């Protein structure tokens, strides 16, 4: 017995020593790895001037892709380092109303940070042969390389459509986008921005000044700082013509003086929609207006706002110059050209004195509202979170710290006394909870633009999602009504139905003034780039009776709270099903 006990004691001593040794080795290895990574980042920072001489960084992109060693000590700011990745950071939700699957996101963020770090180290090689690559890579693309041209935000070289993809931009992608919209030239800048147009300046810049590598295509050049790599894509338009969309806007009463209303016109026997659209596209106008054999090009204006459509029968004889309508009505088509009167945006030149929130429950149309506000005011909106997908598509306020006060307002889904009282005022966007829940569930499984599959809707995740999120929809509104200092209530449904009046309310609340033409431009570009596309879910009722009873109780509670604060109650369509 004593012998067996002695053997057991000896074994435990060995095991204890082995565990101690392994633990110490593990901690030492981790410390060495952390020190090595920190040293590499510091070295990259000390070499930043020489290593990046061939790759200048614009003011608007400052700080993108640059790691501050102090950030390693602050896990809260970690997600903001994930620039150029399609990452989605969810709000820090109150545990009472947040679903269980959101709580474990920290592990995912740690893995994303690791991947970002390795990408950061590998992407810091200086581009010594940038000018040579710009000349050699053009042979790989279909368009004809025209040269390197200067460009700035105040006076664009190419004045047509603008596209962003701060992660996957390539020369071919830009060329195809411009060709499909009937433009002659495609220009790339900053490695990630695409501009379209039909006219070029007479003089070009030095070829070596276009030295920014394309974000989505190593070895190819996509312009530089205030420099455009320009390609002629007219030869691609024949193939793209099949895919270009000319949208019928309706029949409208013609203005009294068409030549004064529209800046360009054409009289052509046997005029067709395609002929008029092609003519207006070359002139870089978004509207093609046809009256008999007359073609007019222009924008929506106060004289011709496209708000009051007429009966289509009144335009039935317009094409053959019939006397049916006696020239009083005209057909209007949307060309592939983008209305660019409201696409210029920038950060505030001085810090805002009033800290304004754009608050909503997820799935209530916050991204769409930001699109409208940015294009109406000309200033970027910020975000309490970092959404790589939105940043990649041009919402540059995503990368700015949410408390910088350089943005016109800040997106948030937060609720609770502390989070709400940080803001001086807020636009509270409310949407029908049935629609909001479905929209957020779609985003969770298919991103900003897709739809969840039937399998997702019929899985266990959907009931769990409704049970977790329905109460959050109600508590979000109730908390803002209770703790918000100054509120403007906007119902998503009202904004959708009466865009201009509601947008004017929002702009006035933000203490901004905008022109009527700019508002009409926003209305002409109302959908933006985040309207859902693809196959919609099939016609079936995703809400069970139990779910409806739960949601309906919250609807009545919120409606009563709004009226108690002297706000208009919820729209009638919110009324329980």
TrEMBL record:
GO molecular function: sulfotransferase activity
Superkingdom of source: Eukaryota
Organism: Psophia crepitans (common trumpeter)
Classification via PANTHER family: SIALATE:O-SULFOTRANSFERASE 1, WSCD FAMILY MEMBER CG9164
Keywords carried by this UniProt record: Repeat
Family, as annotated: Belongs to the WSCD family.
Phylogenetic classification of the source organism: Eukaryota, Metazoa, Chordata, Craniata, Vertebrata
Keyword Repeat: yes
Protein name in UniProt: WSCD1 protein
Listed transmembrane segments: none
